[in-house]
Every structure is written in structure tokens, then in C-alpha cells.
Amino acid sequence: MLRIAVPNKGTLSETAVDMLREAGYAVRRDPKELIVPDPRNDVEFFYLRPRDIATYVGSGALDVGVTGRDLLLDSHSTAVEIDEFDFGASTFRFAGPVGEFTKLSDLAGTRVATSYSGLVEDFLEAQGVRATVVHLDGAVESAVRLGVADAVADVVETGSTLRKQGLEIFGPVILESTAVLIAARDDIDGLETFRRRLQGVMVARRYVLMDYDLPAELIEKASKITPGFESPTVSPLRDTGWVAVRVMVPRDDTNEVMDALYALGARAILVSSIHAARI
Ligand SMILES: Nc1ncnc2c1ncn2[C@@H]1O[C@H](COP(=O)(O)OP(=O)(O)OP(=O)(O)O)[C@@H](O)[C@H]1O
Ligand SMILES: O=P(O)(O)OC[C@H]1O[C@H](OP(=O)(O)OP(=O)(O)O)[C@H](O)[C@@H]1O
Ligand SMILES: [Mg+2]
Question: Are the folds of 90-175 and 207-273 the same?
Fold first, then answer.
């Protein structure tokens, strides 16, 4: 039975749980539930703090888990990233009072507040900058104003939290993070099915199915606009001068692709959502 760690709180939790539900797994009905057995799929879910997930997986107590790349690296766990998800994207950056810092070396001899001390210490050491890392649990943007640090290092998504505290980003990108699937090893029984199901959810969200009718002689040109995953499905119509085409298209490109197909001569262009996929 595959034992899977899922974030019980925080930014990653809701999307991770939605993905599991869409992939056909049992999810908790009440936020107090910590363990959710799913015998039908031969898996068991453990709802844990995102920050602790790498520790559980690295130690072998659990087989796989969903967490953030930044949390994985910060934990110094031996678990490894095996897949990347398309949610939870953020960057990890240094920030300081507007106008006070311009480059990484300005941090020498200063105090840097962060809740990711493992990650920040590793980075500063690799870059040869000697600074004191002040560990805080969260809301680190207040640390400068309150005088416990000169600069901060934190998760930045829109940057609005920093701006509100009179801070600005400086120096190199410490890390590009996203939600990831981590495991102690990649040859665990049942892991491939779990990965394929989650990939299927991502594909179903990212793509739409497009159907259109096309004068047969235009199929080469249309295939350049809609190449599909492998290749478009082309079926005959009763009128031999026309064909019907079915193809997957990235959801974000839907309208541009419809415009281009219409301009080429395609008609009856229909778009439908993909409910589930196994690619
Ligand atoms: N805007 C964001 N704020 C915080 N974390 C984010 C954001 N966007 C993505 N993440 C990712 O979420 C993970 C942080 O998980 P965490 O549990 O700390 O979430 P949180 O929203 O900060 O929850 P809390 O502060 O209540 O503990 C990290 O991997 C981080 O990169
Ligand atoms: O760039 P932004 O879009 O403003 O988002 C980033 C902010 O969001 C998170 O804070 P969170 O609300 O999780 O509080 P925390 O610092 O206590 O974890 C993160 O720690 C940053 O402070
Ligand atoms: Mg947080």
C-alpha cells in the first residue's frame, strides 16, 4: 500500500487536495481528519504540515508526499523531487528597506530574517557571504521594521507583502519554487499509477479538446496550427471534400487557435473540456 503525505494547511493544501479528488482518490471530509485510508486504490493519505512532509518521506516513514521545492531543500531531507506540479509557484528572494541594499555582497555582516534558514544558510555559504541568519516562524517582513534583522529572505509571489512593509527585492534569485512530488526512491510499488493519475489531472486542466471540419486539402496547414499530442485524429465526412479533425489544444491558446483555424477555412469549430486523461 502506497503511503502518501498531503499538506494539511497553507497555500498548497487546497489545490493538492482538489487534484487528489479529481484523480479519483479519497480525500478528507473534515479538516480535523489526519489519516484517510483509501483501500479501493490501495493507498493511504496522511495530512501533515507542509514543512514536515520532506522529513517523513526522507526518513522512509511515508513513501511519497506533496510539498514545496523550497520546503524540501530547506529541510535537508534525503527525499528527492520526482515530479513538478503546476501550482504553488513562487520565487525565494532577499529583500531590504528601499534603497539600502543593491547586491548580494551588501549582506556581509548583516542579519537576515527568514523561516527557511537551511535554504538561506546554504545559499549564503555557496556564494561566500557571511551574514547572520535569524530564524523566524513567519511574517518575516516585519522583522526589519521591528529591528531584529537588517534584511529578509522569503517567498515572493506577487511582491505585495514586501511592498507594504517598505521593502524591495535585491540580489539574485535564491530559488524558483513550485509544488513538487517527493519520494525516498522512485521504484516504490504503486508509485507509477499514482504519478500517472496526477499527470492526467494536470493534462485535463491544461488542455481542451477541439473538433472542427476542414476542406481536406488544408489538413497539412491545419496540422501546423493544431499539432496535438501525437498527431490530430482526421476522420472522413460524407462530403469527400471535407474532413473532421479532433485534437488537444492548450487551454490558454484556445481563442487564438480558433481564430487561426477559422481564417484558414475551418468551420464548426467546437471546444470541450477534458474530464480526465491518461497520456
Ligand atoms: N504566496 C505564497 N505564500 C506562501 N507560500 C507560497 C505562496 N505561493 C506558493 N507558496 C508555497 O507554499 C509553501 C509554503 O507552505 P506553508 O504551509 O508555509 O504555506 P503558508 O501559506 O505559508 O501557510 P502558513 O503560513 O499558514 O503556515 C512553499 O512551498 C511556498 O513556496
Ligand atoms: O508576494 P506575495 O504575493 O505578497 O506573497 C508572499 C507572502 O505570502 C506568504 O506569507 P503567508 O501569508 O503565508 O504568511 P507567513 O509569512 O506567516 O508564512 C509569504 O511568506 C510571503 O510573506
Ligand atoms: Mg506562510
Answer: no
Q: Residue 150 and residue 279: Cα distance in Å, rounded? A: 49
Please state whether the predicted TM-score (pTM) of the whole model is above 0.95: no
How far is ligand 2, taken at its centre, from the CA of residue 100, in Å? 22
Give ligand 2 pocket residues (Cβ under 6 A): 138-139, 141, 154-161
Instruction: Give the homologous superfamily in CATH for domain 90-175.
Output: Periplasmic binding protein-like II (3.40.190.10)
The CATH class that applies to domain 207-273 reads: alpha beta
Q: Where in 100-166 does DSSP place strands (E)?
A: 111-114, 132-135, 151-156
Which atom of ligand 2 approaches the CA of 11 most closely?
A: 13
Distance 157 CA to ligand 2 centre (A): 8
Residues 16 and 85: their CA atoms lie apart, in Å, by 9
pLDDT cut 90: percent of the chain above it: 96
Mean pLDDT, rounded, for 52-80: 98
Question: Which of 13, 75, 90, 115 to mutate to test ligand 1, by most ligand atoms within 8 A of the CB atom?
Answer: 90
What is the ipTM score, two decimals? 0.94
Q: Are strands 111-114 and 80-84 parallel, antiparallel or unpaired?
A: unpaired
Domain 2-88+178-189 has CATH 3.20.20.370: no
